[in-house]
Design goal:
The chain is an all-alpha fold. Helices cover about 70% and strands about 0% of the residues. The protein has 3 helices and no strands.
């Protein structure tokens, strides 16, 4: 799996819905920091 492409897709979809990282995190039950890590490729687990 290409972590960079996955992060970019998450970011694009989040922005398309007009959500902040914190809002997306709340919707799916994780922190906004986790969403940030996914988007930047820092954490892919």
């Amino acid at each position: 799996m290409d972590v960079g492409k996955t992060g970019a897709m998450i970011r694009a979809l989040r922005l398309d819905k007009g959500l902040t990282q914190k809002q997306l995190g709340e919707l799916i039950g994780v922190s906004g920091k986790a969403v940030s890590k996914w988007e930047t490729g820092v954490s892919h687990s």
